[in-house]
Amino acid sequence: MAELWQMTASELSDLIHSGAASCREVADAFLGRAEAVDADVRAFVTLTPEVALRQAQIWDDARARGDELPPLAGIPLALKDNFCTEGIQTTCSSRILGSWKPPYDATATRLAREAGCVLIGKTNLDEFAMGSSTENSGLFVTRNPWDLERVPGGSSGGSAAAVAARMACLGAGSDTGGSIRQPAALCGVVGLKPTYGRVSRYGLVAFASSLDQIGPFARTVEDSAMLLQAFAQHDPLDSTSVPIDAPDYRAALNGDIRGLRVGVPKEYFADGVHPEIKASVHRALRVFEDLGATVGETSTPHADYGLAVYYIIAPAEASSNLARYDGVRYGYRDRAATDVIGMFEATRDAGFGQEVKHRILLGTYALCAGYYDAYYDKALRVRTLVKQDFERCWQDFDVLVTPTSPEVAFKIGDKAGDPMAMKLSDICTIPVNIAGNCAISLPCGFQDGLPIGLQIIGPAFEEARILRAAHAYEQAAGWFLQTAQL
Amino acid sequence: MGLGILMIEYGRPKPARAPRGILPQFSPATESPHAMPRLSLDEVTQIALLARLSLDDHEKQSLTEDLNVILEQFEKLQELDTSGVPPTTHAMSLQNVFRDDVARPSLPREAFVHEAPQGRDEFFVVPRVVEG
């Protein structure tokens, strides 16, 4: 029999519900795995064994009493360290938060706990989720479980690596321009960015509020559906959370995609995308055809403008959101200054890393009177054009299929010093955030032993549709059976 | 933080107008209608002041270079005619989400003050702001 830490959430759920394994045994197995391999991978900022064992005990006691268990009872979960967790240090991988412990839980934290998940730990990220490799963490660099010399992607690189290395069964991250899907692709796991508004952002430390969205990491599409189910609830505490009931996502995974109209937007196969990745995606498209889907080429002519739109809107919003870190309310304060303005400046100078300062300056500039029209207002108008591209596609197609990332995991340090190189990593994922669609990334092959990700994009609130398409492909292709050897 | 004035204007339709008040005054480095201005070291210093970042000379220099590389990418947007295109501020057009105006319990102030770098009772403590 496989080790408990090798199993999927749906397999563990069956064992736990039938009594064949206790939640304590499952928690011990994953904590042991983390102890064995996290010294190499460094996915976690904080491991929470006491919390995990306490939560596991609650469900084991409930089972002993004969209570009905929630679907994810006892399933080990890793949360990105920008989810507020009551009484548990939440760093955003930034020195400016110090050892700040939130006095409350994010709604997503609470929903995962209520669904039964057991918290294994908080995972590393690019500082305040700004980056695509987790190298911008203000704390340390996380490594890709498939090759420890390479990045796990980012910004949710810690959660992706934790799931890929089986230190957690499920993970959660946030995706502003690709921060769930790109690391999922680079780490060979499944990552889903729900529609903007599907999952409450309350208690998620804000980066770019009109783009941020919370979503699951998992080893399989079915497991992703299970965690999304827990997250997808209306929350009055987030006014952008939509009051639409979520369908039964797991029930949607019936394997039947006959007649599904798959669009392939040609702009996502430009020269910047590695030929081996294009070939893998085309092989995947043939699998879709074999399963009864129809595949046709389409076009999203404004996709090329997505990167520029994103790098105006996201920093503009971030410059406002990050104004709150001034040494008054959160963790770190520089104590040398004697006047209040000097204290703000010295705290922010020492507390923020280079990339964060970079984006705060960029955003402040873009919002300045005199340049507001040329940058910010222009970006909002082009955002409309990007959105309209997708709306035209939905008239002819049910889903769109693209690569998730233009390249596989790169070597640590390879993109240092070139301010645009890292940003190009997100060219295939950014337009989805700009338009507010949902999308999932799942493995579709390997290049030199490194995983390649396939992105399936759906219209707003069609998570069930992209999950069904992803599940049908996943089961037919079987890439999910391959695991990183550590 | 000094950004409040900028954000009040968020989302309103705006005629082009001259910079004013405390905001930095930039002048385009070129007369071409499509070319974006280049940021100088002085301008980065001014923006850093607005953003309450005290940068050392080395940081200012490298940030200025990096920002100009990125601003160059933004020029691409000027290729598009967006005169008849409305701006999108949010992907979902939810508007005016209200709840009933009912008082609800909130967390005790001490819970937040306790986590601050310096607090006393229900208050955050900061260096003296007003001389006296």
Question: What key phrases describe this protein's structure?
Answer:
heterodimer; A: 486 residues; alpha/beta; Amidase signature (AS) enzymes; 2 domains; 11-stranded mixed sheet; 11 strands; B: 132 residues; mainly alpha; Histone, subunit A; two-stranded antiparallel ribbon; 4 helices; flat
Folded structure, characterized:
The complex is a heterodimer of chains A (486) and B (132). Chain A is an alpha/beta fold and 486 residues long. Chain A has two domains: 4-259 and 438-481, Amidase signature (AS) domain (Amidase signature (AS) enzymes, Alpha-Beta Complex); 304-378, no CATH class. Helices cover 37% and strands 13% of the residues of chain A. Chain A is built from 14 helices and eleven strands. Chain A has helices at residues 9-18, 23-41, 49-64, 107-114, 157-164, 181-187, 221-231, 275-290, 306-321, 340-351, 354-367, 373-396, 430-435, 463-477, and strands spanning 44-47, 76-80, 118-123, 170-175, 190-193, 213-218, 261-265, 294-298, 399-403, 438-447, 450-458. An eleven-stranded mixed beta sheet of chain A has the order 1-3-2-4-6-5-10-11-9-7-8, with helices on both faces. In chain A, strand 10 and strand 11 form a beta hairpin. In chain A, helix 2 (23-41) packs antiparallel against helix 3 (49-64), helix 7 (221-231) runs antiparallel to helix 14 and helix 9 packs across helix 12. Chain B is mainly α. Chain B has a domain at 39-79: Histone, subunit A, CATH 1.10.20. Chain B has helices at 4-8, 41-50, 57-74, 109-113; strands at 119-120, 123-124. In chain B, strands 1-2 form a two-stranded antiparallel ribbon. In chain B, a hairpin with a 2-residue loop joins strand 1 and strand 2 (123-124). The longest helix of chain B has 18 residues, at 57-74. The model of chain B is unreliable at 1-34 (pLDDT under 50). The chains are: A alpha/beta (486), B mainly alpha (132). At the A-B interface, helix 9, helix 10, helix 11, helix 12 and helix 13 of A face helix 2 and helix 3 of B.
